[in-house]
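Why do we bother with holo predictions? Because pocket geometry can differ from the apo form. Keep that in mind while you read this record for thymidine-5'-phosphate.
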Amino acid sequence: MAAQGVFISFEGIDGSGKSTQARLLADHLRAAGRQVVATREPGGAPGAEEIRRLLLEGAPDRWSAETEILLFTAARRDHLERTIAPALAAGRIVVSDRFVDSTRVYQGITRGDLRDKVDALHSLMIGREADLTFIIDMDPGLGLSRARGRNGHEERFEDFGEPMQRQMRDGFLALAREFPDRCVVIDGNRAMDAVAAEVAQITDRHLR
Ligand code: TMP
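The structure, written out:
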């Protein structure tokens, strides 16, 4: 039978520090001699990165939430086929900065209740969850000011503002309660190193 790797995802609101934590976990695992593929969504494969640009640049009302569900899922399918599935089949550890939980929250609850559509498309086209998901929990106001401080051009979702940021934080916490077997909530309102140490400890326990 083919070797099977481990799939770890990081989730949280914009500015939660999850991208930094995903990178630090990849570094930690590599230092321990593990083979790691660090990746992100939307993106993580050349075609999916092209879809990323369509999704993250432009005016907030550029796409409806329904169209976004289709585009994020299309990007995810490409990411799964080209990057995630081959890495897992080769026995590697995949560390992804976001996966389907982001769609469940950003597209599933923030502009009407579309969660059923997200889940239906996910089971039809993706059919896989992460083995372990870290939800980096962060004060919504602080997260938003950190995200805006970056001054990038991928700001479509940041333009939605603080009330929505608050709704998304609650959405991620609700997902953690819904999927307790794979989700761990981490307090992100602490020093980066303290957060990284907790994430590393939980991952090491999971891998044993
Ligand atoms: P990032 O800032 O973590 O790179 O994520 C890009 C943005 O895309 C972020 O604002 C969240 C959003 N997003 C969704 O709305 N739905 C999704 O399924 C994913 C993966 C990201």
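The chain has a mean pLDDT of 95.
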